[in-house]
Amino acid sequence: MEAFQLLSRGGIKFDKNRFKEDVRLFTKDSKKASKGKQVARKDSGELPAELDFFKYAQGGAFSKRKADGTGDGETHDDKRRRLGGDEESEDESDAGSSSGQPMPRHRVTAKGSNVPEHAESFEALKERYQLSSHILANLSSNGFKHPTGIQSHGIPILLEGRDLAAISPTGTGKTLAYTIPILQCLGAPVASAKSAAGTGVRAVILAPTKELAHQIHNEFLRMAEGRKWRIVLFSKATAATLTDKNARDKVDIIVSTPLRLVASLQNGTLELSNVRQLVLDEADRLLDAEFLSQVQEIVAACSHTSIQKAVFSATFPAGAEKLAMEMLRDPIRIVVGLKDTPLPLIAQSLTYVSDESSKLPTLLTYLSQPYNPPVVIFVSSQPRATSLAEELIINGVPNVDCLHAGLTKKEREDAVARMRKGESWVMISTEVMARGMDFKGVREVINYDFPTSVQSYIHRIGRTGRAGREGKAVTYFTNEDAPFLKPIANVILQSGSSVPEWIRKLPKPSKMKRRAMGKVQRGDFVDKARKIGRGDVIKKRDMIAGSKRRKEKAERARAEMRGPGADGDRGMEVD
DNA sequence: AAAAAAC
């Protein structure tokens, strides 16, 4: 293990300038990706208007890159005409999108009473809602020029104090859509706050992983820069500083994972009775069985009568959405694009690898050819993440990294930091990375292990293709995965990539298998949640037993990964 | 079916 850490960190030093030059090495694959998309467009014939971005992508992104502007403006206008009245402006630009690629345009649908009109620009928000010039300045200095769809529609709703259920694809700027209204409301305290503007925590943001909470916290800090709000990333350490009520009263915003917050509520070191804004990010995840009771406890603790709640996600299975709608008051529901559909900017494909032992050789072959780093590789368990990383390092793959929740806090933070600095070329991770994490440079996602739900698939591949960039997503499947192939294939087809005919013709999976894919019935959803009481805390001896089990599992995973026929099938691309 | 989430 130590040797692995040394190897994975030592490796070849990676400096950014060199990287820029190396990029030329990898153009082969990016051409392949775009070719794949053209094929997909041909194959799938007529696409729904909101999905037909290919023309746009070619006219916009490509022509700019090739310094050949022909047809660019025309494509844009053409698009506008075709989409007609429902379509809303949505060019995203952010600090990272220096390539100048505009975001594709999506259809936006809003349901609810008295839906406020969307805002075409951040300046319009200033005119209509007196958005503070301080926030505007921070937007501009961070490179945010135009609101994305979810921002132009969601921000007015939140600024008017309405509850919101927002569904918008991965990488379309959901975080900023609630960051701005929350900061704005802090700046102009609601009338009922009376004497005390500083009466403790007034906004809570929940996220399912520490990494995501950290990232959200950073986004708040960026937008709040220059103001002296106290925005706290809740952790063991920060919670300990808040045992004193005076310290607590100075906190304005808390970003946290659910269990951490519940722990503080239960030991009485936290008050949430003055919380005016509560956001559930990755809400469908937070409302699934494992988190639901914790989240409900937090919601109950936010006892102020004028609390505003908002839920955000790229996916929302019916059961989770029902639960969400039940906890919102007179909500407005916004959907950007099509629910549960990845961005067409992500070129998706399936690769048949017959069995477990064929995966590693297939991946090694792939990584021995020019590819586009950084690549994120998803596996199904912590031991598999560790052992795959070891195997890649043993096989001489440079700059391999690994992130899962079995690592220490510091190891996790370091892995994220290396990813942000561009030092990781190959990042192997579990579901912990699947949601929300915004690494702007990710060019490719490989599902080394088949995702266990369509939601997981959508979020995993959403690590690439962010903020208007193109991305590539490859999913390995074995014979054993075949029964679960159809729902994923449907998602791929719906978002405009192509799927081989034999997969398209697979029968629908049985009810039992569908459930395994995450389409849990509402009844199951609630029953499961009830069984997990709020006092159902992990006991220390369980954790010790767990860690022992993990070690044994890692051993088994290593053996399995090398496999009996590690030099067998190379796997083949079915495209 | 496994992951994640406190101290």
UniProtKB/TrEMBL annotation:
- Quote the SUPFAM superfamilies the UniProt record gives: P-loop containing nucleoside triphosphate hydrolases
Which top EC class applies here? hydrolase
Which is a Pfam family this sequence falls into?
Helicase_C
Q: Does the keyword Ligase belong to this entry?
A: no
One GO CC term of this entry?
A: nucleus
Question: Does the keyword ATP-binding feature in the UniProt annotation?
Answer: yes
Annotated Helicase ATP-binding domain ranges read 155-334
The subcellular location is: Nucleus
Which superkingdom is the protein from? Eukaryota
Q: What is its EC number?
A: 3.6.4.13
Query: What CDD domains does this protein's entry cite?
Result: DEADc_DDX52 (cd17957), SF2_C_DEAD (cd18787)
User: Where do the record's region annotations for Disordered lie?
Assistant: 63-115, 537-575
Residues forming the motif Q motif are: 124-152
Among the GO biological process terms of this entry, one is:
maturation of SSU-rRNA
**Which keywords does the record carry?**
ATP-binding, Helicase, Hydrolase, Nucleotide-binding, Nucleus, Ribosome biogenesis, RNA-binding
**Residues of the signal peptide:** none
Q: Where is the composition biased (Basic and acidic residues)?
A: 65-85, 552-575
Q: What is this protein called?
A: RNA helicase
**What organism is recorded for this protein?**
Neolentinus lepideus HHB14362 ss-1
